[in-house]
Specification:
Length: about 425
């Protein structure tokens, strides 16, 4: 059996065709032998409203509150974890530690970034769990992908500081997410001189695609057509985002989506669609999707909310209007999670092993448990999908267990049997129990 690269070489085709043949069933090596486990971590900021977020009961017989209601369709594939807490302390305020320690499970270095009334801090002192798992998968040929991980962003500030970075390649090594869909498309599908050249990505490969279709079987042709259609839809949506009539002359700007607050829903959809496309091509098996940043100040005008999210999160519980608006905001974030789950559930695995959602675990989380108290207790963790064979369809409660144990459980779900992750003081009880 020829490898994918050998197939392209013998056909006289270049690397631009690789994303389209990378996952054809007949070229998979070894074929159908191992399912593709994937991990997606979604971050949204500023905590939640507990009484509209957490289910009242444990077990399978639970009901979603308003904030989680968009997941109703996926209830049997959802795991809600209450009582998982970020025990990491040290330098920095809780917003800083909240995002900087969320995936690393370890302290921030001393630094000169001042936040709140706490001591200043720097970057995290450890690798994040998404990168730990990505590195583990890259060590084996059967699970190695073109990109070890992909970091998607939605209106993440360009400034690089402790409040704006979620993933870490190692101590003092923050990873910047890509929050420009044009740049992400370029990373996935080739070099683009400007947005207009998007329309030529498939056009330039038209002849090569036809040659491949003539050389492969029915199943491969069907998959190739589905992947090509997905890319074409992405091209059309990205071009539409640039050319939509906004009621005045659109100024000439540098290539890329218009990064502004009111475009957040459009950017979110484009990034999620690109993530699904990357999974179809098996370009990666680990991804993060970061909405704004800790102390996130998005103004969700499309929901009729004019105030900044962070400002609202500081309002007392007695401000019922603020509570209702924050519930609406978290419901919107949950709708993005549900959209990703739906796209994954509707997309078949190229090897015939179920859908993408069957083999993907989505983890939605936050840097705080509650915004106005800045607590690191009861950090929201909502899991959706079948990627790690956890027993889904449940609401679970824990007694303030360190979140390091959940991070370890994610690694174990991939067969990466680490005995500690982050601060070892919070790993003594082992992986979080009861998930499987």
């Amino acid at each position: 059996m020829k490898s994918r690269r050998e197939f392209l070489r013998d056909m006289g085709m270049g690397a631009a065709m690789f994303p389209f043949v990378n996952n054809l069933p007949s070229l998979l090596v070894p074929p159908f032998s191992q399912r593709k486990q994937r991990l997606v971590i979604i971050f949204s900021p500023d905590g939640v409203i507990p009484n509209t977020f957490w289910p009242d009961t444990e077990g399978a017989d639970f009901a979603f509150k308003e904030s989680l209601s968009p997941l109703e369709e996926f209830k049997k594939r959802t795991l809600v974890l209450k009582g998982v807490s970020d025990r990491v302390r040290g330098d920095g305020d809780n917003h800083m530690r909240g995002i900087g320690c969320l995936l690393t499970g370890t302290e921030l270095f001393p630094g000169n970034v001042q936040g709140g009334s706490d001591t200043p801090a720097g970057w995290s002192s450890g690798i994040s769990i998404d990168q730990e798992i990505a590195n583990y998968l890259q060590k084996t040929a059967a699970t190695r992908t073109r990109f070890s991980s992909l970091e998607f962003g939605v209106m993440v500030p360009e400034r690089a500081d402790t409040w704006t970075r979620l993933s870490y390649a190692g101590p003092n090594k923050p990873i910047s997410p890509i929050d420009d869909p044009y740049q992400m498309f370029n990373k996935l599908y080739g070099q683009l001189k400007d947005q207009e050249s998007l329309k030529s990505v498939l056009d330039d490969l038209k002849d090569d695609l036809a040659k491949v279709r003539a050389q492969v079987g029915t199943q491969d042709r069907q998959f190739l057509d589905e992947h090509t259609s997905l890319v074409r839809e992405m091209e059309q949506e990205i071009l539409a985002a640039r050319t939509t009539n906004v009621g005045h002359a659109v100024p000439v700007i540098e290539p890329g989506v218009r990064r502004n607050n009111d475009n957040i829903p459009k950017i979110s959809k484009l990034q999620i669609d690109l993530m699904v496309s990357s999974f179809v091509a098996d370009a990666t098996r680990v991804a993060t999707l970061q909405y704004t940043n800790s102390v996130g100040q998005a103004r969700m005008t499309w929901l009729g909310i004019k105030e900044g999210q962070h400002d609202l999160s500081h309002e007392p519980d007695t401000n019922l209007d603020a509570q209702a608006k924050l519930t609406k905001i978290n419901k919107w974030y949950c709708e993005q999670l549900a959209y990703l789950a739906k796209r994954l559930s509707e997309t078949k695995e190229p090897d015939g092993n179920g859908t993408l959602l069957d083999n993907t675990l989505i983890v939605w989380t936050n840097e705080l448990g509650k915004g106005n108290s800045h607590t690191l207790e009861d950090i929201p963790f909502v899991l959706v999908g079948g990627g790690l064979d956890f027993k889904m369809g449940r609401s679970m409660r824990f007694n303030h267990v360190p979140h390091n144990r959940l991070l370890m459980a994610l690694a174990h779900g991939f067969g990466h049997r680490i005995e500690r992750f982050g601060n070892a003081d919070f790993c003594g009880a082992g992986v979080l129990t009861g998930l499987s």
